Amino acid sequence: MPERSLAGSRIRQTRLTKGIAQGVLAQSVGISPSYLSLIEHNKRRIGGKLVVALAAELGVDAAALSEGSQSDLLAAMDQAAAAHPDIQVEAYAAQEMAGRFAGWAALISAQQGRIDGLAGTIETLVDRLTHDPQLATSIHEMLSVVTAIRSTAGILANAPTLEPEWQS
User: Fold this and answer.
1) Contact in structure between 109 and 76 (CB atoms under 8 Å)
2) Whole-model pTM?
3) Maximum distance among all Cα pairs of the chain, rounded to whole angstroms
4) How far is CA 99 from CA 3, 7, 41, 46, 122, in A?
């Protein structure tokens, strides 16, 4: 489905957001409500003159309704789906979702970007820990001291035979 076909979803979402009835909008631009319904459900293509008329009635820029601005968003959603092959997603519905629920689609995209960024940070830190001898030595020394303190505290807290001065 070409990007331009998302115009119907954007028209529907804008109309619903503004609280305009489908019949009222259709009559104001000179088309039938059933034809507008087909357009809104991406079953009919929409021409430039009709986009301009609908945009004027809805009080938005015509480019906001007709441009395929969701291509980056769709690519990010596809990438998110590919990153989780164990989760079954309805790939055929991605364009509809991006058109009708652009905010949710953007959230999915942003969350996947954050996950990818954090995975990259973890990979960098693991690589540094693996290949930086000074850092590895420092961590080993810190863990040794923490273990010694914990062992000593355990002995002192749980040993009933120690004299009180030794415990303090």
Assistant:
1) yes
2) 0.45
3) 97
4) 9, 7, 10, 15, 34
